[in-house]
Amino acid sequence: MNTIEKIYTNYDGLLEEFSEEVIQSRYAVFYEEIEEFAKSLGIREKIQISESLLSHAVLDYFTDISRLKHFHQAKHINSLKVISYETYWLLRRKPIQILVEDETSDAMAFLNEKFVFSRITKYLMGDGKRVILSPETKKGFLNYLDSLFYYLKYRNYDAEMLEMMLMGFKAGVLVADDLKEQES
């Protein structure tokens, strides 16, 4: 008989669909990104990366991607869906665990949110080209990022909502110049 625990942790079929190499590669990328993130904040010794929680995040991500591909009969998933579903499962599983409580514990309270927020920001900024924003545009962008971070910390979210938020941002970028011309 299938128990809830067996069904919940049953990831059969993912290895056949995506291959063990692909799944392990995604795990390794996340692990390395978390390591670099923690080092950049100078807190690597104060946290641990839960391998079990990170594994579940990766497997849950691939489970959702599999469902999407089958439902939409798609061979590939676009980058908006990838970052949205990765973000959702990393936030849901919270693989970054605090080891050392100290005077910076308030700053460390939302480490998982800060980590995915840094990934989203990098995604939104594109291919890494240096972008110089006007003061008005910079203010608007920073306000958007502040709202996004607040949302990740305190609001209910799902992968579809995250996808729509990112899609809205990308659409705004595409039409921004045209909208400014119409206002003039």
Helical coverage, percent range:
55-70%
What is the typical, i.e. mean, pLDDT? Answer: 88
Hey, roughly how much beta strand do the residues contain?
Answer: under 5%
Count of individual beta strands: 2
Major sheet attributes: 2 strands, antiparallel
Helical run tally: 8
Rg, rounded, reads 19 Å
Biggest sheet, spatial arrangement of strands: 1-2
Stretches with pLDDT under 50, minimum 5 residues: 1-8
Written description of the protein model:
The protein has 184 residues and is mostly helical. The protein has 8 helices and 2 strands. It is globular, with a radius of gyration of 19 Å. Helix content is 70%, strand content 3%. It has helices at residues 4-8, 14-18, 20-40, 51-72, 79-93, 111-125, 135-154, 159-183, and strands at residues 47-49, 96-98. Strands 1-2 form a two-stranded antiparallel sheet.
Task: Give the helices and strands, then pairings.
Elements: H1 4-8, H2 14-18, H3 20-40, E1 47-49, H4 51-72, H5 79-93, E2 96-98, H6 111-125, H7 135-154, H8 159-183
Antiparallel strand pairs: 1-2
In short:
This protein is mainly alpha-helical. The chain is 70% helix and 3% strand.
Which tags fit this structure?
184 residues; disordered N terminus; mainly alpha
